[in-house]
Design brief:
Order of helices and strands: HEEEHEEEEEEEEEHEEE
Largest sheet: 6 strands, mixed
Number of strands: 15
Helix content: 10-25%
Number of helices: 3
Structural class: mainly beta
Strand order of the largest sheet: 3-2-1-6-5-4
Strand content: 35-45%
Shape: elongated
Length: 194
Amino acid sequence: MSASSVTTPSAESLAASARAAKSGGRDLPPVHEWNPPFCGDLDMRIARDGTWYYQGTPINRHGLVRLFSTILRKDGDKYFLVTPVEKVGITVDDAPFVAVDFERDGEGERQNLRFETNVGDHVIAGPDHPIRVERDPETGEPSPYVHVRAGLEALIDRKSFYRLVEIGDRQDGWFGLWSGGAFFAMIPEAELPE
């Protein structure tokens, strides 16, 4: 293979390919259908607070972050930006998205919780978009997540989590949330403070 045919991944080439893929009017390109060659890792990182970094510098253009988020894919435990011609690895500190707010429609078993992410995705929690909570084994601190799409989750931010706790319910020995006709257990009822 000649050196001139080797692709060097860059944020600029990925953005151009992503824009071209979106030109068909789709909000989310079909990244699950693309199988380009792996081109290496890119110095891009998504911090736990949802900030995207390129070469150590925050990406402050929301439109560009949104564009990159539409070509994000998780394969196994690794994250990639994928276009029809490139696949590059990136680093994700926790979850690739942050749920920054939610709206509640209805109450109890009939309620729906509609989450909004930092990159503009909207999902209603339910069987296809479950909520889960992990607890730090040392501190017991909860980390709540909601599934957004194709194995990609959003960490639910602290203010939203506190609001969710206020509308929680008890079911079969668990404290949790109803949404989309499903109950999502968050903490054993026995561990709740009196």
